[in-house]
Design a protein that fits this description.
The chain has 176 residues and is an alpha/beta fold. The chain is built from 4 helices and 6 strands, in the order H-H-E-E-H-E-H-E-E-E.
Length: 176
């Protein structure tokens, strides 16, 4: 996690950004398309899927296709990930690995930081990137909507063993 005393340009404590939740309406629209089986970066109070990974059962240490201890041990075909802000590169690398290893679709909601190495690496390994117009209004750990998101977002999508090179699309936030 980040230093609790460091404040970014958005005046949000860096460590809080690791816990911002995806807005339910945005998740529901994506879930309708992808039918997510697991929320890869969650906590019991903010998981958007019945199956989820959290700090105690890390998605960096477990396989995403069969989450660790659910009674039914479901076979997962698609995973949603809104990674911790401070750990985006490592989670995107893991997303690529898990998608290809288990032939699952992984959809990552991240900042559209096209000038970073992690974005470039993801674009080289993903099958699709959807740039979202406008800015997503995330939900703070307190449950209130975050104001003044300073960056645009995108969806980076890996489709299992699909070998189609990356296709980049502009997606209007209202049409997701």
């Amino acid at each position: 996690m980040g230093n609790k005393h460091f404040v970014s340009k958005s005046d949000t404590v860096l460590s809080e950004k690791d816990w911002w939740q995806t807005p339910k309406a945005l998740f529901d629209a994506l879930d309708k398309e992808f039918e997510f089986g697991v929320d890869v970066c969650a906590a019991s109070h903010n998981s958007l899927c019945e199956c989820f990974f959290d700090i105690d059962h890390s998605a960096l240490e477990n396989e995403w296709n069969t989450p660790y201890e659910w009674d039914e041990n479901p076979q997962i075909n698609s995973a949603f990930i809104n990674p911790p802000y401070s750990q985006t590169p490592i989670f995107l690398s893991r997303a690529n690995e898990q998608a290809k290893k288990h032939n699952i679709t992984v959809v990552a909601l991240v900042n559209a930081n096209t000038d970073t190495k992690w974005f470039s690496d993801a674009a080289k390994s993903a099958n699709e990137i959807r740039l979202i117009t406008g800015r997503v209004g995330f939900v703070k750990p307190s449950g209130e909507k975050a104001n003044g998101n300073t960056k645009g977002q995108c969806l980076i999508i890996w489709r299992g063993k699909c070998k189609t090179p990356c296709n980049i699309l502009m997606t209007d936030r209202g049409s997701i």
